[in-house]
Amino acid sequence: MPSIDLKGARLWLLAAALLLASCATTVTRQAYRHGRLDYRVGALPAEWQPIRFRGANLAFRHRSGGTITASGYCPGGDDVPLEVLTNHLLFGIKTRSELGSTLFMLDGRQALRTHLLGELDGVPIELDLVVLKKDGCTYDLQLVGVPHQFGLRQPAFEGFTHGFATIPRRPEQGSGE
Hints:
Elements: H1 6-23, E1 26-27, E2 31-34, E3 37-40, E4 48-50, E5 58-62, E6 67-73, H2 82-88, E7 94-106, E8 109-120, E9 123-134, E10 137-145, H3 147-162, E11 165-166
Antiparallel strand pairs: 1-2, 2-3, 3-11, 4-5, 5-6, 6-10, 7-8, 8-9, 9-10
């Protein structure tokens, strides 16, 4: 019968567990962590319920209509202007009319906020989009809703946006990649 090095096996299992933990995804109502992405957002009132939304790290729907999402990715390489990143969020939106666009500071970096009207599958929508780049990653925060209720949803989005911050990793946490 072959002998088993229990000490070596334990070390291997510990290393495997640490590797898996560093690659794990953690999602709460106010935070997202996966790989290089580690950020938080402001709290939303209880009427905003978490949902799964393709392409979003965090997504919430208001029980009376409206969706708030947060997404991030770390493409590396190209330094794409904020305006171009915003335009990528608008694929599929027809008949766009920009109501305003402003640069502001968010989490110590310049962010672009764009407010517009549009149509998605023939349905009128209003959007408030925030895009920012930090430490090789791109983040976008979105509020989407119907125009007649949009103003009622903006205060929650303000808190969500102004609570945004990346969470620095401690050296022992590693990058997970």
